[in-house]
Each structure stands twice: as structure tokens, then as C-alpha cells.
Amino acid sequence: MHTVWTGERVKLRPFKDEKEWCDLAQELEMVPNEFWGAWWSPRPELKKDFEPAGLLDVEKASMFAIERLDTGELVGYEEHGAPKPGSIEAWVGTVILRAHWHHGFGVEAKQLCYCYLFEHYPVERVWAATLSNHKRAARGLHLSGMRYQGRFRGFHFTDGKYHDLVCYALYREEWEKLPIRLIVKRG
């Protein structure tokens, strides 16, 4: 199974070690997320998540590090869930450090993860969701090839009000037409 997926701007790869993962997670948690709210995980909890399989565990959520090709900097992570037995869908989620926003890294990371999921699993659908007030994330999902599917009303409470969860999906036949498939380097 390929473990590194390289595009034009970024590559998805396993985290080098527990320290790299913990440092990134704690850097991401230093600034409260204005959409999802503040979250914080103690380092022992982050280490526990890393230990069994280096964050690449098909039984639960897995994560690839997102590395910039031009500088070699770690800019975030691409989380994904492999299909459960008997299921034909998987999911993705992208987190990018604020200093690296607006460069297309998240869009390309999602597309590289689509390649990983569609090429390694018998999935027909990859989905993602974000909050309705997180317009930048919704735009990134659309730019990556996903299409709006619907919403769950009053899903998440932040900043004194409830926000809807908006859902997006990409189907195998749509992924097969994406240009990323022609440029991705696997291995």
C-alpha cells in the first residue's frame, strides 16, 4: 500500500514520529478555532492516539501529515476514515495551520486523500462536513470536487448560537474525472 501521495503543492505522508504529531496538534490548539470552538488535548492523550499504529489505523480515524513541497514545512493533517466492513463510503477532514491558509494546500490534500481512499478501498462515496458559518471550509470542499448534499439543522453550539452542519460528497465516477489523478505521485 502506498503511504506517500504527492501533488503539485503538498504531499500526504505518515507522521515521522510521535513528537511531530504532538507538536503539530498542540500548535493547532494554541489558537481557539472560531468555528468549532476551543479544544485541547493533553500530550499523554495525543501520545496514546499515536502509539498503536502511528495514526494510520483502519479501525478508527487515521491521519496523514500534510507537508509543503516548496519548504518541507508541516502545514496540517488530513484525517480520514476508511469504510467499515460492508460499507461503501469513507470520510475526510482537513486541518491547516492558520499561517498556511489561502494557498490551496487543503484542497490538494483532500484530493490526494481521495486518491488514497478510492484506490485502496471499494468505496463509491467519500464525504465531508463542516459548519454552515465556515464558508472557507465549504468553498474548499467544493473546489476539491465535492458537491453539496444537505444539512443537519442546529448541529453545533458555538459563540452563543447553534450552527447547521453542511454535508458534501464525491462519488467514484466524479473522482475518476478529476485532474489530480493524472499528476499524483504514489509511493
Word description of this protein:
This protein is of the alpha+beta class. It has a single domain, classed as Aminopeptidase, CATH 3.40.630.30. Helices cover 28% and strands 33% of the residues. It has a nine-stranded mixed β-sheet with strand order 7-8-6-5-4-3-2-1-9, sandwiched between helices. Helix 1 crosses helix 2 (43-50). It is globular and about 40 Å long. The N and C termini lie close together (8 Å). The mean pLDDT is 85.
- Cα separation of the termini: 8 Å
Sheet-strand content, in percent, reads 25-35%
Global structural class: alpha+beta
Read across the widest sheet, the strand sequence of neighbours is 7-8-6-5-4-3-2-1-9
Low-pLDDT residue intervals, each spanning 5 or more residues: none
Largest sheet: 9 strands, mixed
CATH architecture name? 3-Layer(aba) Sandwich
Mind telling me the CATH superfamily name? Answer: Gcn5-related N-acetyltransferase (GNAT)
Number of helices: 6
Shape: globular
Number of strands: 9
The CATH class, by name, is Alpha Beta
Report helical residue fraction.
25-40%
Order of helices and strands: EEHHEEEHEHEEHHE
Outline of the structure:
The protein is an alpha+beta fold and 187 residues long.
For the structure shown, list the relevant keywords.
alpha+beta, Aminopeptidase, 187 residues, nine-stranded mixed sheet, 9 strands
Chart the SSEs and their pairings:
Elements: E1 5-6, E2 10-13, H1 18-29, H2 43-50, E3 62-68, E4 74-81, E5 89-96, H3 105-120, E6 125-131, H4 135-143, E7 147-158, E8 161-171, H5 172-175, H6 180-183, E9 185-186
Parallel strand pairs: 5-6
Antiparallel strand pairs: 1-2, 1-9, 2-3, 3-4, 4-5, 6-8, 7-8
